[in-house]
Write a structure and sequence with these properties.
Number of strands: 7
Number of helices: 4
Number of domains: 1
Distance between the termini: 11 Å
Radius of gyration: 14 Å
Strand content: 25-35%
CATH topology: Rossmann fold
CATH architecture: 3-Layer(aba) Sandwich
Largest sheet: 7 strands, mixed
Helix content: 25-40%
Bound molecules: adenosine-5'-triphosphate, magnesium ion
Shape: globular
Structural class: alpha/beta
Length: 151
C-alpha cells in the first residue's frame, strides 16, 4: 500500500491512526534515509498509543521506552550507530516476544535476522522537502490486521 503525506502534520496523523489500532506485540520497522521522517512517524504512533510524554529520537541511547494506554509500552529503537547489535539484540528479542510491547525500529538492518516476519515495514521516501511517500507492507497476519484497517 502506498500512502502520500503532504507535510509533517499529516505524517503524525498517519502514525496516530496506526497507533490507535495497535494491540501489543507488533513490530514496526521504519526504513528511510536520515531525515526521512521515521522518528516523526513514531511520534504519531505514540500519540495513537496514548503516550503524552515527548518522544525523542533514540539515536544516542539506542532504545527509549514509553508507557502507553491499556498497559502497553512502546519500545523505540534506533540502531544507526551500531555496527553490530550485540547485547541490544537480546533486549530487542525480549521486546519482540512480549505481547504488551509495541516495538518500533529505525535502522534495523543490523538486527534483521531477529526481526519476526510478521511485521509492518514502512519505507519512506521524500519526493520533495515537505511531502513523503510511504510504502506500507504487512508481512504476516498480525501486521495485516493493522494495515488493512488503517485509513
Ligand atoms: N512530511 C514530513 N514528514 C516527516 N518529517 C518531515 C516532513 N516534512 C518535513 N519533515 C522534516 O523532516 C525531518 C524528519 O526528521 P526525523 O527525525 O523524523 O527523521 P528520521 O527518519 O527519524 O531521521 P534519522 O535517520 O536521522 O533518525 C524533520 O526535521 C521534519 O520536520
Ligand atoms: Mg530517527
Amino acid at each position: 500500500m502506498q500512502v502520500y503525506v503532504k507535510n509533517e502534520s499529516d505524517m503524525k496523523d498517519y502514525g496516530e491512526r496506526i497507533g490507535r489500532l495497535l494491540k501489543g506485540g507488533e513490530c514496526i520497522e521504519l526504513v528511510g534515509d536520515v531525515g526521512a521522517g521515521k522518528t516523526t512517524l513514531t511520534k504519531g504512533i505514540a500519540n495513537g498509543l496514548g503516550i503524552t510524554e515527548t518522544v525523542q529520537s533514540p539515536t544516542f541511547s539506542i532504545n527509549r521506552t514509553y508507557q502507553a494506554r491499556d498497559g502497553l509500552r512502546l519500545h523505540h529503537y534506533d540502531f544507526y550507530r551500531l555496527n553490530e547489535a550485540g547485547i541490544m539484540a537480546m533486549e530487542l528479542a525480549e521486546s519482540l516476544s512480549d505481547p504488551s510491547i509495541v516495538s518500533v525500529i529505525e535502522w534495523g538492518d543490523v538486527v534483521a535476522p531477529i526481526l519476526q516476519n510478521d511485521r509492518i515495514v514502512i519505507t519512506i521516501t521524500s519526493p520533495d522537502e515537505a511531502s513523503r511517500l510511504l510504502d506500507v507492507q504487512a508481512d504476516g497476519k498480525a501486521a495485516a490486521a493493522i494495515t488493512e484497517r488503517v485509513l
